[in-house]
Write a structure and sequence with these properties.
Length: about 525
């Protein structure tokens, strides 16, 4: 049986929006090439080192010379010697260009709400640094060096979570980030808030003094959306793998037929994710004696959709994860600043203004990702409901998997929790990108709302993890009712790992700690089998 697995291209991590664990041995070199999602996660959650290559430093320096020459010229150039947004027609005198850049950072730091998680902020910092290092933003190398220095000293700017409309860059979140580079606002070190100026001084870093265009370059970009997308996709990759195990465990825990997993069925549909998922479920269930125990004399003709059509639903989720991953990977090689500096034109350096900061490519995909996540969790909850209902007389399980139903409630309320999480996911799946609110006196008249989608997606990943954890907890108990028969070798290994941390249910006890334990196992990649 094939050992290949769908989706999983990234290694497991020991963190799920938690404090950083043992520092990574990885060094991420900013040389202009695209970052990978795995590299962003390594920096964000495992304190991987970051370096600026000499070649990138040279490109940045050449681009900076062009900015300084053009800023000193007579022509108005947006972001260099003009105001911003609807104030772009206001020309700024040369002696006030530094003040202009400082003012844009201060005035745009208008976020509200709870701070972003530190891993998302660190991801923003490395994505921003990589974009600037590509040499099209016209900033000095010292700007990137300041970002690297703060990452090295574990200084994460405190960034309020609300404020970006995801179009002219993630303006408010990035302004709070840039403020910290200047020694203003707060930073977190090891989870503790500190005044940014004091933290920089303690780390031996001088507050950054912004030159022409640098404030705008720090604010214009999709770096929050991209970082959040990396974190959510990485986490959902682990959830998806655990969901595959849970699905297989459910098939045997519910004494369902393996027939719908036959390769011929899925080849006839031609959907790549579906074909992969079915093959993976066959691998996970290989060697099951449970299926043989009810293969004969079983009057049931077909199982519920949540079991029979699991490859079709999870396959669609797999295809969605792949598509979203492709978009995020493209963004990790992008420059999303505005305007951009091109030094190799036929007539010499030129600055071109456009809309690369617009978040719509990410916004649509993040909305798509939440829809896929909702289906991953939704079908999981339905399988939990089915086995706990206890109305299948051909499956030797008790109602709610209780040892003494009636006196005991077993895992009854675990399904309620899964239903509550799924209901919330269904609300979160409503797309943020289809609604528009105009800003900046109408000059910014079509916004992506991708930052809203990013926040919702981070939350959706956590809820989906909880639902899959509940399915694993419930189906591990359902497998107990199938003894002495065994499931497939991979299912039995997952069952063994769960039982190492969570004992079998022999009497009523509080399920919440058990659910949290399985959630942790998913986040740590223990069920990536």
């Amino acid at each position: 049986m094939s050992k290949s697995r769908p989706i999983g291209i990234m290694r497991s991590t020991k963190s799920w929006n938690l404090p950083m664990s043992t520092p990574s041995s990885v060094t991420v070199v900013l040389d202009g090439s695209p970052l990978t999602i795995a590299e962003v996660v390594e920096v964000a959650r495992h304190a991987a080192s970051v370096e600026l290559s000499e070649a990138a430093r040279g490109r940045m320096t050449a681009s900076r010379y062009a900015v300084e020459d053009l800023a000193a010229g007579a022509n108005p150039i947006y972001g260099l010697n003009t105001g911003f947004g609807s104030l772009a027609q206001v020309r700024i005198d040369g002696e006030k260009l530094q003040e202009l850049q400082t003012n844009i950072v201060r005035s745009h730091a208008a976020g509200v709400g709870d701070p972003l998680p530190d891993d998302v902020v660190r991801g923003m910092m490395v994505v921003l640094a990589a974009s600037l290092a590509r040499g099209l933003s016209g900033v000095r190398p010292v700007v990137v060096e300041q970002l690297i220095g703060m990452l090295e000293h574990d200084l994460s700017p405190e960034i309020p979570s609300r404020g970006s409309v995801g179009a002219s860059g993630d303006l408010a979140p990035l302004a709070h980030l840039a403020s910290a580079l200047m020694g203003e606002g707060l930073v977190h070190r090891k989870g503790n808030p500190l005044p940014a100026l004091d933290a920089l001084e303690h780390a031996g870093l001088a507050p950054l003094r912004l030159e022409a265009k640098e404030g705008l370059a720090l604010l214009n970009g999709t770096h929050f959306m991209t970082s959040a997308g990396c974190m959510a996709l990485h986490d959902l990759d682990l959830v998806f793998r655990a969901a595959s195990i849970a699905t297989a465990m459910s098939i045997d825990g519910c004494r369902a037929s393996h027939g719908p997993l036959a390769d011929q069925i899925h080849q006839a549909r031609r959907q790549p994710g579906q074909i992969e998922v079915a093959a993976n479920l066959r691998r996970i269930l290989d060697g099951s004696t449970i299926v043989a125990a009810h293969a004969e004399n079983d009057p049931r003709v077909q199982d519920p959709y949540s079991l029979r059509a699991a490859p079709q639903v999870l396959g669609a989720v797999a295809d969605s994860l792949r598509m979203v991953r492709s978009t995020i990977e493209s963004e990790l090689g992008a420059v999303t600043d505005n305007p951009l500096v091109f030094i190799d034109g036929p007539d010499g350096p030129v600055i071109r203004s456009g809309g690369n900061f617009h978040g719509m490519p990410l916004a649509i995909q993040l909305d798509h990702l939440r829809i896929a996540t909702t289906h991953l969790a939704g079908i999981s909850e339905r399988r939990v409901y089915w086995v706990l209902s206890g109305h299948d007389e051909h499956n030797p399980v008790t109602p709610y998997l209780a040892s003494d139903p009636g006196l005991q409630s077993g895992l009854m309320i675990a399904q309620y929790t899964a239903a509550a999480c799924t209901s919330e996911l269904q609300t979160l799946a409503n797309p943020a990108s289809v609604a528009n609110i105009s800003t900046s006196a109408g000059i910014e008249d079509y916004n992506s709302m991708g930052a809203t989608g990013a926040l919702l997606t981070l939350h959706a990943a956590t809820l989906a993890r909880s639902v899959v954890a509940i399915e694993l907890l419930v189906m591990a108990q359902a497998i107990e009712h199938q003894r002495p028969h065994l499931s497939g070798a991979v299912v039995e290994e997952a069952h063994r790992k769960i039982r190492q941390r969570v004992p079998a249910l022999t009497a009523d006890r509080t399920p919440a700690p058990d659910i949290r334990t399985v959630e942790t196992m998913i986040g740590e990649g223990e069920l990536d089998l």
